[in-house]
Specification:
Radius of gyration of chain A: 15 Å
Number of helices of chain A: 1
Order of helices and strands of chain A: HEEEEEEEE
Low-confidence stretches of chain B: none
Helix content of chain A: under 10%
Strand order of the largest sheet of chain B: 3-2-4-7-1-8-11-10-9
CATH class of chain B: Alpha Beta
CATH superfamily of chain B: Thiolase/Chalcone synthase
Distance between the termini of chain B: 22 Å
Oligomer: heterodimer
Number of strands of chain A: 8
CATH topology of chain A: OB fold (Dihydrolipoamide Acetyltransferase, E2P)
Number of helices of chain B: 13
Shape of chain A: globular
């Protein structure tokens, strides 16, 4: 069976770096240089303090599952989840390369990059 | 200045239709408007304020419906907060009436997702590409059902809530729906039937999900003097509240509570009553988990105890402590336009008037409450609460 190719949308202005990094196998997180907090999804204005003094930092790519759901209504079923990265910020993702029945809240996971439309890559996670 | 009691709900109407292949969206809006005005004993020439949600109303911000119905207005408000919009509109109409900006406010909702074959809960909806979250979320396949399922999964993990407890919400709704001749699912179901129905988005089963229906509903809200001149039982708006809940930029993500916590606090403060005074609640029941979480956030039990609270028939009228959704709600009766707030207010009005079905009418109906969420529970939504007094 051929591997799933995820949908992709054209990067909105300011987010090109995130998708370029993903293509190169790196997960970026936006950090605020004024309030020193991370956030996700990435924005051009800090959602904590409204600063525009932001920078991309590479995440370690590890974290744990905050919550998840197995979408049985879809064939094949897929696992949507929120993963909390070790940097302290949570992101929506898919849990992949695992029997969905083995996924658990609190499970340690690491980032893997899956193909998306247009030759890009999408950050997903798999149990460590 | 408190706005408590500065407006009354004078008319309410729910379209009996559940599938409307032969009616346009505009016609459904106009039919429910006529129904609510007839119920109040008013006519369209009395209407000087119109409230609708831009998302279910054809045309720009309500303008097409104003034109279709031939209204002449001095106040218009097309605030769209998803399914909670019409509860928000009750508050906005109260404010507009108190400020002298209108005397008779008309609120309408209509939709026909069933006729349009929409996969309301299971198909990921992309939304506008300008929406800043879309490119970081849509590729992962978030649909309504699995977004709510993730909230349910976390509630189970953190508080020990079980599928059987969630099922009791559906069981209670079905006990009420058996008395509603318009309900899509009037058959009484058991906990076993709910938990053995097919899994849609783990841990939510098919019977944890609301129905998909066409239809609509409308309200007429007026100044107190006008309400008092009419023949219908009077329903006073004594408390309103609205609030937002987001993900905090992903820092400290907490999907165990909703905006209901804040919207209910505001509504109870305005009304000067507490949860123990409430005799009946309408709660937007998009999914069973939605009700469990809202019951906690509205203050009917401690956070995390919602599963235990709803078990063993505690939401069944005449049986439990907190009768809810006595029309059968979205889980059994209807869910017009994928937006449950309107029908929640309408059944609360029926209860406050003493006009619910005799088998489900609560004995003492002096204080009733309607609450809903719009958007996606706990992740990105608006909660709205209204407290009504039957006079």
């Amino acid at each position: 069976m051929s591997e799933k190719v995820y949908p992709a949308l054209p990067p909105t202005p300011g987010n090109e770096a995130y998708w370029e990094a993903a293509k190169a196998g790196k997960l970026l997180v936006k950090w605020c240089q004024d309030c020193s907090k991370p956030h996700h999804y990435p924005r051009g204005v800090c959602p904590h303090c409204m600063s525009t003094n932001l920078e991309w930092r590479e995440a370690k790519g590890t974290g744990e599952i905050y919550t998840y759901s197995i979408m049985h209504a879809a064939k094949p079923a897929y696992v949507v989840a929120y993963v909390t990265l070790d940097e302290g910020v949570s992101m929506m993702t898919n849990i992949v390369d695992v029997d969905p029945g083995k996924v658990k809240v609190g499970q340690r996971v690491k980032v893997v990059f899956k193909p998306s439309e247009g030759g890009g890559k999408l950050p997903c996670f798999t149990p460590v | 200045m408190s706005l408590k009691g500065k407006a009354y709900i004078a008319g309410a109407y729910e379209h009996p239709i559940r599938k409307a292949p032969d009616k346009s969206l505009a016609q459904l809006h106009a039919e429910v408007a006529k129904g609510a005005l007839d119920d109040a004993g008013l006519s369209k020439s009395d209407v000087d304020g119109y409230f609708c949600a831009s998302g279910d109303t054809p045309g720009l911000g309500g303008l097409s419906m104003v034109d279709y119905m031939g209204l002449s207005l001095r106040h218009i408000d097309a605030t769209d907060t998803g399914g909670s919009s019409y509860i928000v509109h009750v508050g906005h109409a109260l404010e507009a009436i108190a400020a002298g900006r209108c005397n008779v406010a008309l609120v309408t909702l209509a939709g026909r997702p069933r006729s349009e074959g929409m996969q309301t809960g299971t198909a990921p909806r992309m939304g506008n590409v300008q929406q800043p979250d879309v490119q970081f979320e849509f590729p992962y396949g978030p649909a309504t059902a699995n977004m709510y399922a993730m909230v349910a999964r976390r509630h189970m993990h953190q508080f020990g809530t079980t599928s059987e407890q969630l099922a009791w919400v559906k069981v209670a709704a079905s006990h009420h729906a058996q008395h509603n001749p318009h309900a899509m699912l009037p058959k009484v179901v058991t906990v076993e039937e709910v938990v053995s129905s097919p899994m849609v988005a783990d841990p939510l089963h098919r019977l944890d999900c609301c129905v998909i229906s066409d239809g609509g509903g409308a309200l007429v809200i007026t100044r107190p003097e006008i309400a008092k001149s009419l023949k219908r039982p009077r329903v006073k708006v004594i408390g309103v509240g609205e609030a937002t809940k987001i993900q905090g930029g992903g820092v400290g993500l907490d999907l165990t509570y909703s905006a209901g916590r804040d919207s209910a606090k505001a509504a109870f403060e305005m009304a000067g009553v507490t949860p123990s005074d409430v005799k009946y609640v309408s709660i937007y029941d998009s999914f069973t988990i939605t009700v469990v979480m809202q019951i906690e956030d509205l203050g009917f039990c401690e956070k995390g105890q919602g599963g235990k609270f709803v078990a063993d028939g505690n939401l069944i009228s005449g049986v439990g402590r907190l009768p809810f959704n006595t029309d059968g709600g979205g889980l059994c009766s209807n869910h017009p336009g994928n937006r449950g707030g309107m029908t929640k207010v309408i059944e609360a009005v029926r209860q406050a008037r003493g006009e619910a079905h005799p088998k489900v009418q609560v004995e003492n109906h002096d204080i009733v409450l309607a609450h809903g969420t719009g958007g996606s529970l706990a992740t990105r939504h608006v909660g709205a609460t209204v407290i009504l007094e039957g006079e």
